[in-house]
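Dig into this one:

. . .
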Amino acid sequence: MDRVALRGLKARGHHGVYPREREEGQTFIVDLVLGLDTRAAAADDDLAKTVHYGIVAEEVVAVVEGEPVNLIETLSERIAQTCLKHEGVLEVEVTVHKPDAPITVPFDDVTVTITRSRV
């Protein structure tokens, strides 16, 4: 399976279990790896035969900016399902970063990574 990756998509969302997270919001960063077969697109040099990653990026940002959820696990699942709606995308790996998570000790990042497929 071929891979198309988008890394570092940034959007402001209001996800989290604490009122402050819901009220103030914070930046979330999303990495995607889309699994698909790109041979037909490459053979014909035709965008219509592959995934339009610009559109996928816009849709993922809309999910992050959209309806708040408590958990980044839930956000990851919504993003994965959005990606799998694209014809040709057979599998997706989603990593959601929450670098400003409300943790009381020094840390660099919190992430959740999931893999989903049409199977």
About this structure: The mean pLDDT is 97. Strands lie at 2-13, 26-36, 91-97, 111-117.
